[in-house]
Amino acid sequence: MAVVLIVLPLLSGAAAFLLRDDAARRRLLLWTAWLHFLLTAGRILAYGRWGWAYSVAEGFRETPFWLPGAWEWFSFDAPGLLFLGVTSLLFLGAAHYAAAYLAEEKRDPGEKGENGFIFNNAPEAVFTGCLLLFLSAMTAVAAARHLGLLWAAVEATTLLSAPLIYFHRHKRSLEATWKYLLICSVGIALALMGNLFMGAAGLRGGAGLHLDGLLAGAAGLDSQLLKAAFIFLFVGYGTKMGLAPFHTWLPDAHSEAPAVVSALLSGALLNCAFLGVLRAAQVCGAAGLADFSGGILVLFGLASLVTAALFMLGQRDYKRMLAYSSIEHMGILAIGAGMGGRALYGALLGAVGHSLTKAGLFFVSGLVLAAYRTKQIKDVKGLLRRSPAVAALWLAGFLLITGTPPSGIFLAKFVILKEAVAGGRWAVAGVYLFFLAVVFAAMAKIFIETTFGEPAQEPERGFEPPRAMVRPALVFFVLVAALGLCVPSWLDAVLNLAAGAIGGAR
Amino acid sequence: MNTFAELTIVLIILLNMAMSVSGSLASCIRLAAAQGVAAGLLPLMAAGGAHGRAVAFAAFIIALKGLVFPWLMLRARELTGARKEIDPLIGYPASITLCLAAFAASAWLGSRLPLPQSGVAYIIPASLATIFTGFLLITTRVKAITQVVGYLVVENGVYIFGLALFVEQPLMVELAILLDVFVAVFVMGIAIFHISREFDHIDTDALSQLSDWRRGEEG
Asked: Which residues of chain B fall short of a pLDDT of 70?
């Protein structure tokens, strides 16, 4: 099953490069996204409902007969399945958005220029092909059972998403692409060092780098080397995840990419990197070093939260503001993962909520950009009169992302806060609450200004967004709100199993 | 057998220093390639001789790092017309001092780390120093191509580090990692080509429009 899910987008990605007809290529994108989503959904329901759990036997069942031994490399456990599900759902929304977006760009190229720049877009075949290959690489990250392969898959996601950021062939997007490529590649090279340290830690016990071997032989790992391994893996994958102070590439890449790519980067790719960090924490937890790894996670999580809050104050670019909000949420996830136990459950729930909400917000930001042709906050005023539908979504997204109930994110933030207080971590709880308030204030100012502010001159006409570009955001927001009201039993089961598998500090 | 390996380590360290003072782009690319080849030869000199799989894999690595990468980068240099000097942000004396300091620090660090002892002297300090040199090239050089060279040097260092720790990864993982490095160089090469077309040069200090620190302007 895992192999099928990786190979499916791989093949259609290759086909997308070859197809000449634009309409056919867009259909291919949609069909692949739907097929991937349906297969994934079936797999997750089977897991959450009937406990079709990861095991060697399941590995055999999951593996096609023509690839013996593939279960060693790719198979799903609870955390992998959770992130796979989020990725697949996001990609489905992104595929619908992208199909409409590409059609728009085709009909009206050049004129989409923002701040007077004229875009000379990359060929659509490259864009669609890279999107599909990117999905394949992210699926491989979720399914990888060997830390070496996990590394290779994470690096592959960097390389495959770089052309996507550079879709608008423009100086600014080129700068963002270059920073993204270099900082993430070098960062991830450090994660490779971490893998080597991990291998050295298990050398005596013969643990290897396979996750099952590492977890089974965790007691025999050399704790000094394991600590070094965790630090390197944390810095490497933390760079990709956008934790401060390794986040410098993130606001650039997320603000310069097309909206649909920003949504995927923020909603799906950051999660993949988070999974890398979680895997390292999982091994540390099994080896009894959960206090060490948890301490690092909480420290850098708080640093990210503070950094994001400070940079959001006085932010002038609304896409950068959304990017900093992603850094903030990654910080919250790291804090939750560091505290472990129920807080880890909160962090995973937060990951689901953040992915859907932030992807929806980036989709809407693409519509705002289409309506105003600028990313400057000061030039975007009176969205409510210009386009009530977009304004409603824009405000709804704001309320959901800042964790106003009912929002799945509220639940996640609340669970993490409760755990911090219950664990007697008053300082963490205090900093966490204060800077969440700062973030709320900063974002509220921007969203209220853009929605209700008085425009300098009356807009000549309203803006009617294409239906297909509104629907994904709407569906995502409804899902997040529903998540805050009730977590379905199968999702609850997957979340609990995932939190249990990763463990962490108690 | 170990004597050859130790001589190779010395060569790798010397190549680090040569790269930190090299003034021409082409020679920097060739020095990095030579270092890649030297690193690729190392596993063949391991005590106990090499078996078939190791030889084939080493040949593959040497071909990639010694031929394909320098060819790609020299081609990028040709296409972008970046024949000039390397333009370091700091002077060459400072560069080599930093490189030597990095080596001294690595030697100290290598003796402190509780790593399994390998038969080859100085292999761990050499690998750490190579990684530092790579970072030096990335951070203190202006040209985009030199940053790619720096990335490759970091990769060389990590590879040597893996040899020193005896971490045997399965062939599939090794191949996946190499494929990634190959694609990385390829994609970065394409990006450099676009940078040169967009800015008429490949100095990365022009890439500074996006920042939250500059006030009062667009961006």
From this structure: 1, 46-50, 82-86, 117-118, 202, 213-219
CB contact under 8 A, A155 and B172: no
pLDDT in tens, A427-460: 999 999 999 999 999 999 999 999 988 877 766 6
Are A167 and A121 a contacting pair, CB within 8 Å? yes
Sequence-distant (≥ 6) Cβ neighbours of residue B187 within 8 angstroms:
A159, A162, A163, A181
Q: How far apart are CA A118 and CA A138, in angstroms?
A: 32
Average pLDDT over residues A332-359: 94
Are the C-beta atoms of A147 and A195 separated by less than 8 Å? yes
Selection from A37, A24, A132 nearest residue A92 by Cα: A37
Whether A463 contacts A387, CB under 8 Å = yes
Longest Cα separation, chain A:
73
Q: What is the pTM of this model?
A: 0.91
The number of domains in chain A is: 1
Q: Rounded to whole angstroms, what are the CA distances from A19 to A32, A52, A131, A312, A366?
A: 14, 38, 15, 43, 27
* End-to-end Cα spacing for chain A: 34
Give the minimum alpha-carbon distance from B165 to chain A in angstroms, rounded to a whole number: 6
Q: What residues pair up with B203 in beta bridges, in sequence order?
A: B143
Write the DSSP symbol of residue A108. S
Instruction: Return d(Cα B175, Cα B38) in angstroms, integer.
Output: 19
Does residue B210 belong to the interface with chain A, where contact is any CB pair within 8 Å? yes
Query: What is chain B's mean pLDDT, rounded?
Result: 83
The 10 Å CB-count burial string (b at 16+, else e) for A270-309 is: bbbbbbbbbbbbbbbbbbebbebbbebbbebbbbbbbbbb
Contact A246, A314 (CB under 8 A): no
Rounded (5°) CA angle A288-A291-A292: 95
CA dist., res. A267 & res. A245, Å (int): 20
Measured CA to CA, the distance from residue A206 to residue A213 in angstroms comes to 8
User: Measuring CA to CA, which residue among B94, B67, B86 is closest to residue B26?
Assistant: B86
Interface contact A225, partner B, CB < 8 A: yes
Among A134-138, A342-346, A375-379, the minimum mean pLDDT is found in: A375-379
d(CA B216, CA A187): 32
**What whole-number distance in Å separates Cα of residue B115 and Cα of residue A177?**
37
B155 touches chain A (CB under 8 A): yes
CA–CA separation, A35 and A318 (whole Å): 34
What is the spatial distance between Cα B123 and Cα B129, in angstroms, rounded to a whole number?
10
Res B198: pLDDT: 77
Task: Name the token pair of B96.
Answer: 């080599």
For residue A327, give its domain range: 2-502
Chain B contact for A252, CB < 8 A?
Answer: yes
pLDDT digits (tens, 9 = 90+) for B46-57: 655 567 777 888
